[in-house]
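SAMPLE LOG
Freezer: B-3
Tube label: C17
Construct: single chain, 347 aa
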Amino acid sequence: MHRRDFVTGAAAGLAGLLLAGTLAPATAAPKELRILTWEGYADEPWVKAFEAKTGAKVKITYTGSVDEIFAKMTASKGQDFDVIAIETSSYKRLTQEKLIQPVDLSKIPNAKNLLPAFRDVSAIVFDGKPFAVPFAWGSIPLIYDKKVFAQAPASWSVLWDEKYKGRIIAMDDANNAIVTTALLLGYKDPFNLTDAQFAEIKAKLLDQKRFVSTYYAGFDDGVSIFAQGGVDLMMSMGEPQAPMLQKKGVDVGLTIPKEGAIGWIDCWAISAGARDPELAHAWIDAMLDKKVGTYISEKTGYGNTTNADANAAIGLTYADKLVFLQAPENFARRIDLWNEIKATPVE
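STRUCTURE (predicted):
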């Protein structure tokens, strides 16, 4: 299961709510808004409401990976799409390659709905200008067996605790492993590491191998291993793994340790080749309607950026404890380091 595999369900209720506040269709020449996004981010209720309000037709292209987004955007220099949805770690590259343009927040009245944690996300600001608007979020939390822990573990250091040796699993992901370890070590900028910090993280992760029973890949893989028994702790891939385990009868809890945890934010951005930037701004404004945010949380289990009550209802109350992903100083170096760690025999 991918973190973007959404829970599908009824959407008619939202459609009615959104359409109730729409204006009459425009009488100007037909317009088209071309969207490149993930499944679940352009659902029928709000697409129809947007079309009814603006008179434009919405053309949606779904993507399966960040790499695919870059490939499509680079191929046409952004000419094939008007708006895209992508996470914060991608914006440095997007702006360097001039594939997106700044967002004019004065044309997005619903920006006022953004919750405090999402009003000043540095990863999407370049030369003092915002290049995107936060829309949905989640984290890389710690999941634990409640039968073993009466209280949630307070620190990521529990993944180095001799007491749980052989009863820990962790995801096979270079950047997430390195950033989380950097947080544990107290580094202020886990995305721009010095040579000395790389060396310290390498030593720490090599030491952790003594306690980890296995590295897993994918939501289902981690849940399956945990549910088979003999696992007390898991460096999780995201919030959905907790309810997945609970459905399998495993009583688990989810926590954000005191050092913080990785957060991801998917944001809406306007392509450099947008044919109608005004229409693109109108789409982003529509996506910041609190009703859309509520739908995102209720139907997908992801955090939204506009309705705190909807986040609280599903337990996502910790956005201010997250360190949101940014582009690292050298991603290839991180991959090489992680591969070296995995290839090193446990002493």
